[in-house]
Structures are given as C-alpha cells and as structure tokens.
C-alpha cells in the first residue's frame, strides 16, 4: 500500500477518534466503505477506518470498500451497522414525550448497550439522550422529552439531528459510544401548533400525517389535542 493511502486512512481514523461529535464519526463510517477511500476498510467493533484491516482488526467483522479488489461478502456502506425509519423524519409536538422505535441492521452481539440522542440544529445546543433497548431487529428508545426554546427554525419548528450510539455491554463512566449509521438521515422536527397556524383554516389545513394539531375553540388557538381542555376541532 502506498504512502498516500496510508495517510488517508490514518487521517480519517485520527479525525474520527478525536471528534466529540457522533454525527461526524457516523459520516466517516460511510465514507470508509465508499469509493473515495478505496483502500480503507471499516472495523465494525473497534469503529475505525484502516488499511489492511485483516491484520489491524483481527477477529472483527469488516465492511470493505466498494472498490476493494478481491472477494468480499460485506462490501459497501449498506453493510455498515445502521438504523432507519419507515416513516422518515419524526414529527413531534414541543413538550411531548415520545418513545422512538427504529429498524436496525448489521448489528453484532457485542453491541449490547444503546443510547438515543437528539441535538437541535442551533448554536450551543445541548445533546439530549436516553438509554435504548434492542428488541429483535428494532431499537426502542426510552421515553424522551422533545422541546425547543427560542425561535428554532423561525417557522414554528425546530430541527434536530437524531443519532443512535452503541457500546459493548457493561456500562461504566468511561464507556465510549460509537454511532450507528443513520442511513436515511432521519431528523426530528419539533413543532408548535400555535406558531404553525394563526387561524382555524390554516390550522385544520396542516398535514395531519406530520402535525397532530387542531383548533381549540375555547382558547381560539391551534394546539395539540392534549393541550385543549374542551372544544377541540
């Protein structure tokens, strides 16, 4: 392997291990198995991108680059440990608690601990997280409170990045978590009914597949049903 390939893989590994952002590490998981990094492979359990992975990550399941020469049964980013949502982005009213359930694939038995995380796309936003459980081919997050403060996206919604991270069983204070690949780039859209619509017509015209809003006649506002004591349309 030439020096350029070594440096490329090594720089990616150094960047991923030094970054505190699980979403950034996730991007490198996919890139490692992509065409651009054709001489790098992904070591699934140690979560690193390396050349000659058979020597560096002995005993681990590998995801090979799509351009790797030679036989491989796990070639390309579709074999990376990942999660997806059949419903696409998650829409949830601000202040609501929700259990999130997603489909997971290419997981390994050594992946025994999981967390769900969301981070609003705004400056200095904190990451909210809850533990999660694997149930067959699904990962179920503990009930999470979804909310946003301030103006959010400026249109009655706040967009949040969503991640699921994993670690080996036996959590300690020093446990290092690694992200699963968010294969569909699922996001969380947190909304406020009252800001989405200022009159009854607009409120009732909102896409009911996304926004659980209705017109609260007594208060004269667009709101979630649970926030309207009576007169909900």
Automatic annotation (TrEMBL):
Main location: membrane
One Pfam family matching this protein: TIG_2
Gene Ontology annotations for the cellular component aspect, listed alphabetically: plasma membrane; semaphorin receptor complex
Swiss-Prot/TrEMBL keywords: Glycoprotein, Membrane
Subcellular location: Membrane
Residue span, Plexin TIG domain: 89-191
One biological process term in Gene Ontology: regulation of cell migration
Record-level Gene Ontology MF annotations: semaphorin receptor activity
InterPro entries hit by this protein: Ig-like_fold, Plexin, Plexin_repeat, TIG2_plexin
Name used for this protein in its record: Plexin TIG domain-containing protein
The organism of origin for this protein: Meloidogyne incognita
């Amino acid at each position: 392997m030439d020096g350029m390939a070594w440096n490329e893989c090594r720089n990616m590994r150094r960047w991923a291990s030094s970054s505190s952002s699980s979403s950034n590490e996730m991007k490198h998981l996919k890139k490692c198995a992509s065409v651009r990094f054709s001489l790098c492979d992904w070591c699934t359990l140690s979560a690193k991108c390396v050349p000659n992975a058979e020597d560096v990550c002995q005993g681990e399941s590998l995801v090979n680059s799509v351009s790797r020469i030679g036989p491989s049964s796990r070639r390309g980013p579709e074999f990376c440990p990942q999660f997806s949502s059949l419903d696409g982005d998650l829409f949830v009213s601000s202040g609501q608690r929700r259990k999130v359930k997603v489909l997971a694939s290419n997981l390994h038995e050594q992946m025994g601990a999981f967390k769900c995380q969301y981070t609003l796309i705004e400056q200095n936003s904190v990451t909210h997280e809850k533990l999660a459980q694997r149930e067959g081919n699904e990962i179920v997050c503990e009930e999470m409170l979804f909310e946003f403060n301030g103006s959010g996206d400026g249109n009655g919604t706040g967009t949040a990045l969503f991640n699921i991270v994993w670690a080996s069983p036996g959590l300690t204070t020093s446990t290092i978590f690694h992200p699963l690949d968010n294969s569909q780039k699922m996001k969380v859209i947190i909304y406020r009914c009252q800001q989405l619509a200022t009159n009854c017509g607009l409120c009732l015209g909102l896409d009911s597949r996304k926004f659980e809003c209705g017109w609260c006649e007594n208060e004269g506002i667009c709101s979630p049903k649970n926030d309207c004591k009576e007169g909900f349309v």
